[in-house]
Amino acid sequence: MNIDLRNQVALVTGSSGGIGKAIACELAACGAKVVVHYFSNREGAERTADDIRRNGGEAAVVQADVSDPDQIERLVAQAEDAFGSGLDILVNNAGNLIERRPIERMTLDLYRQVVDVNLTSTVFVTKAAIPGMKRKGGGAIVNMSSLAAHNGGGPGSGIYAAAKGAIISLTKSLAKELAPYNIRANCVAPGFIEETKFHATFTSAEARKATIDSIPLGRGGVPGDVAGIVVFLASPYCSFVTGETVEINGGAYMK
């Protein structure tokens, strides 16, 4: 299978490292021109772009806080200006648990932070990208959910899990809303993916071992496991697929 994304412009939010970086690099390897987004890790974003360019691809780097709708408008405008075109592919990858905290001790401020960085960002980056996709006659959106959307997540991650569950529902709504414009919307729900800041920050060695022991394939995933599925969903091979959520968890959760 040869996925050809030449002349397509892609924006990957949160692509300074981990899963986002793997997605950006895989899209570029298939010929897409990639806009690498970051919030605070400029060095990581530049490394992502440098890796793409070193392998013959095209990349631009844009900073924005995707929990702020005003900055989102600027992000998408700069992404479109970077290659002189509306987006063909949008990957809403940015997200964060922020911290583990049970509902009993939840504050409104933390609640809003978690919802904004995961769900609000997905809603409003998509909103800003839609006009350009309509002008181009179509596009592909891939949203990032999580296994937590199905099982409630680990200790103290209830709001994160709820936001990721909402992303699955949002994706189905977008699929119906945007189908008349040849814009597809799909979703991926990764399980335990190693080599990410998320698990380096929030998962203990004991929890890591217990999780891997429970996975039928007997290992944790890696960012490339997610990147391949995202690129496939964004490609012409999935031109008749919309509104779906692909589980990427080694068999830990099966629908």
Structural overview:
This protein is α/β, with parallel strands linked by helices and 255 residues long. The chain is 47% helix and 15% strand. Helix 1 crosses helix 9 and helix 3 packs parallel to helix 4. The relative contact order is 0.15.
Give the SSE map.
Layout: E1 9-12, H1 18-29, E2 33-38, H2 42-54, E3 58-63, H3 69-83, E4 89-92, H4 108-136, E5 139-144, H5 148-151, H6 158-178, E6 183-190, H7 197-202, H8 205-213, H9 223-234, E7 245-248
Helix pairs in contact: 1-2, 1-9, 3-4, 4-6
Offer a quick outline of the entry.
This protein is of the alpha/beta class and 255 residues long.
Which descriptors apply to this entry?
7 strands, Rossmann fold, 255 residues, alpha/beta, seven-stranded parallel β-sheet, 9 helices
Count up the domains: 1
Total strand segments: 7
What shape does the CA trace take? Answer: globular
What CATH architecture label applies? 3-Layer(aba) Sandwich
Q: Classify the secondary structure makeup into a structural class.
A: alpha/beta
Let me know the CATH homologous superfamily.
NAD(P)-binding Rossmann-like Domain
